Amino acid sequence: MQNASSTYPTDLHDAEWQILQPLLPAPAQRGRPRERDLREILNGIFYFLRAGCAWRRLPTEFGPWSPVHDYYRRWRRQGVWAQINHALRRQVRQAAGKTAEPSAAILDSQSIKTGDQACASGYDAGKKIEGRKRHVVVDTLGLLLLVMVGPANVPDRDGARPLLQAVLQLCGGLRKIWAAGGYAGALVEWFRTLAIPSGCVLEIVRRLEGRTGFYILPKRWIVERTLGWLVKSPRLARDYETLPASSEAIIYLVMIRLMLKRLAKAPR
Which of 64, 192, 196, 254 is the 20 to 30 Å CA partner of 36? Predict the structure, then answer.
């Protein structure tokens, strides 16, 4: 059932709000108390994602645009969006009958065009795209573990190193990570040394020799489906953000919205 005061299809339903509310930061003990309803703030943020508009173009039903943007930016800097993504991912996995923490993951990247205001962009000669590259690691359900965004001219093997280091710290139970052929070579040897304490293995999923045209590659289709989910959001069909950190926050938010819908439909 949707809230009676709901205005737009992007607004949080009651069941979604009940799931999300306990994960939000508590009010500060000092300073000025909150004046805006957090549910309406989040409704404004989710409208922004779906509409792909500028912050200043938010409808007046959400009140002044600046507080909505201020919450988005403050929680981006504090890492709140990533924390909520991790918490919801655990809930979705458990609802699907899996353990809260994954033992396997899939790594891939996606080059995307940027707007004129973007900094830290480059030219991906392989994809012939001027813009940024999204390096993502997902679990076997396609749920996001981590994302890092950087210039598109950075090779996959180099862009994946800080991401792999971070994902081993985040998910200590990982035992295998599948990756595309672009990550083959020195990265595999480097990762073997890095992952000695955990015993995690980086396995390259290669295309079959002599086979042409489109066909589904084992495991890789999972992360490719996730990247497809991302570009369905108008805000992610192109990278409109000035900072790579903002791009990462938007990706976490899109996944948060997707997982809230799943959890609200799942038996409680």
Answer: 254
